[in-house]
Amino acid sequence: MNKARFEAFSDGVFAFAITLLILSIALPPFRHAPTQAELTHALLALWPNALAYGLSFAVIGIMWQNHHALFRLIARVDRMTVFLNLGLLGMTVFIPFATSTLGSYITMKPATFLYGLTLTGCATMYNAMLAHLVRSHAFSSHVPPASIQQTVVAYRTGWITYAAAMVVALLLPVVSVCLYLIIAAYYLVPRGVDTDLALPAEGAETSHLRAG
Description:
Blueprint: H1 3-20, H2 36-44, H3 47-71, H4 79-92, H5 95-104, H6 109-135, H7 145-168, H8 173-186
Helix pairs in contact: 1-3, 1-4, 3-5, 4-6, 5-6, 6-7, 6-8, 7-8
């Protein structure tokens, strides 16, 4: 598949999902025109929704950045990569619903568990896609095997931590929210292919590396 079209479609889905997040923040209906005090109280009461919005905005933004960093170093996109990417995008567009639920019931176990389940699903698809790209030697020839391995470790670390936070949600919902925030902060630090690797010169030949 043409890689430019593949990336453009993915960018569009990420943009759509991150835009939908704002729908998780809405003032409750008032039976009459609110006073300034009532409006202020209603706005302040939205802090859980604002927290969930900020967390999910960071999560989807980081996912988009990682997607870009990964595929700028991929030489070819095959059919299985397309299917696995569709699975990732399918989980991504579910994040706004999980975010709305989390913001409305941030201290309740079902809400924090659903949020963790959604992010674990995203991490699962990311890891599956990366594993396929490594097995199929889809990386450009200039990408060091060490960078690929660092990426695999970073993705698996997030995957395991998301799954752990999801389980914690069944016992300590507030702690699980803190773990989700920590994972987002973890991915803010560039690792593996997310670092500034130089792209090959235009027209340079590419081959496929075995990452070990």
